[in-house]
């Protein structure tokens, strides 16, 4: 989980200092800043987009409830109200505050409030990640449907469809393409230039004027020197690139490095 960006808003310097000191004990907190009044908080929340705000209610220029009514702050961060007045508790939960710390509070009560907020934030982040993954999957499915899905193969007098996903690499041979799969090779009358634009560029990598590789079958890549690379495929083939395709290969290698870091 990434650190929780936290803002502290209170017009009393000692009250702010105590919250900041308590927050320093938790390594999952990143302090976004401190504000001494509602006007400062309005700008800071809009600028820094904190995940969590410790918010005083009674402040001289703009109280905590008035602050949260500003439309530019939508969607609101998670709020823990910190106040010396118990009469605002019901109203605080009407605006979906995570917790309500009544001054004076002890360290244990503060830690419980913070942990409650952390769990709420984790659930929200998990839900957002799930939604993002679902949208990416839907986008991927749409992209897949836009590209060639099968080759029509004629074999022993009969036609059948060869799924693109089963092809390890494609090799040009004059006006024909040799489609290499784990089981066997197939010839189709087609040129590399004509077919490349019909294939998903996220699935097939051009490394040579005569070679297109299915990236799912690449086992490892080694540098040969002079901007040339050797691609070892899962079925045992070792295929050399040409310098003309170095930019595409570099982009592929950078993307693979990023994937491993995630």
Structure description:
- With 262 residues, this protein is of the alpha/beta class.
- The chain folds into two domains: 4-140, Response regulator (Rossmann fold, 3-Layer(aba) Sandwich), CATH 3.40.50; 150-261, LytTr DNA-binding domain (OB fold (Dihydrolipoamide Acetyltransferase, E2P), Beta Barrel), CATH 2.40.50.1020.
- The protein has seven helices and 15 strands.
- The protein has helices spanning 13-23, 38-48, 64-68, 89-94, 107-146, 192-196, 246-261, and strands at residues 4-9, 29-35, 52-55, 78-83, 99-102, 150-155, 158-163, 167-173, 176-181, 185-189, 204-208, 211-214, 218-225, 228-233, 238-240.
- The strands form four sheets. The chain has a five-stranded parallel beta sheet with strand order 2-1-3-4-5, with helices on both faces. A five-stranded antiparallel beta sheet has the order 10-9-8-12-11.
- Strand 4 (78-83), helix 4 (89-94) and strand 5 form a beta-alpha-beta unit.
- The longest helix has 40 residues, at 107-146.
- The radius of gyration is 29 Å and the shape is elongated.
- The model has no long low-confidence stretch (mean pLDDT 87).
Question: What are the defining features of this structure?
Answer:
36% helix; 262 residues; OB fold (Dihydrolipoamide Acetyltransferase, E2P); Rossmann fold; 15 strands; five-stranded parallel beta sheet; single chain; five-stranded antiparallel beta sheet; alpha/beta
Rounded radius of gyration (Å): 29 Å
Strand content: 25-35%
Shape verdict: elongated
Mean pLDDT: 87
Order of helices and strands: EHEHEHEHEHEEEEEHEEEEEH
Measured as a percent range, the helix fraction is 25-40%
How is the CATH topology of the largest domain named? Rossmann fold
Number of DSSP strand runs: 15
């Amino acid at each position: 989980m990434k650190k929780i960006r936290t803002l502290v808003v209170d017009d009393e310097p000692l009250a702010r200092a105590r919250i900041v000191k308590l927050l320093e004990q938790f390594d999952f907190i990143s302090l976004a800043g401190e504000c001494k009044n509602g006007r400062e908080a309005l700008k800071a929340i809009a600028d820094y987009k904190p995940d969590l705000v410790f918010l005083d209610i009674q402040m001289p220029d703009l109280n905590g409830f008035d602050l949260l009514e500003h439309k530019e702050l939508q969607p609101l961060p998670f709020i823990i109200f910190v106040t010396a007045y118990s009469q605002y508790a019901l109203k605080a939960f009407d605006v979906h505050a995570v917790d309500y710390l009544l001054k004076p509070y002890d360290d244990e009560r503060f830690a419980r409030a913070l942990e409650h907020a952390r769990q709420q934030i984790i659930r929200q982040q998990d839900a957002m990640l799930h939604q993002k993954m679902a949208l990416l999957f839907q986008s991927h499915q749409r992209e897949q449907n836009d590209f060639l899905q099968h080759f029509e193969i004629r074999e022993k007098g009969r036609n059948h469809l060869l799924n693109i996903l089963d092809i390890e690499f494609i090799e040009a041979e004059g006006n024909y393409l040799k489609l290499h799969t784990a089981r066997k090779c197939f010839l189709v009358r087609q040129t590399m230039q004509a077919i490349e634009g019909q294939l998903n560029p996220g699935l097939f990598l051009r490394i040579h004027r005569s070679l297109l590789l299915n990236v799912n079958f690449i086992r490892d890549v080694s540098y040969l020197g002079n901007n040339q690379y050797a691609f070892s495929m899962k079925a045992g083939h070792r295929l050399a690139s040409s310098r003309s395709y170095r930019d595409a290969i570099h982009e592929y290698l950078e993307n693979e490095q990023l994937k491993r870091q995630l």
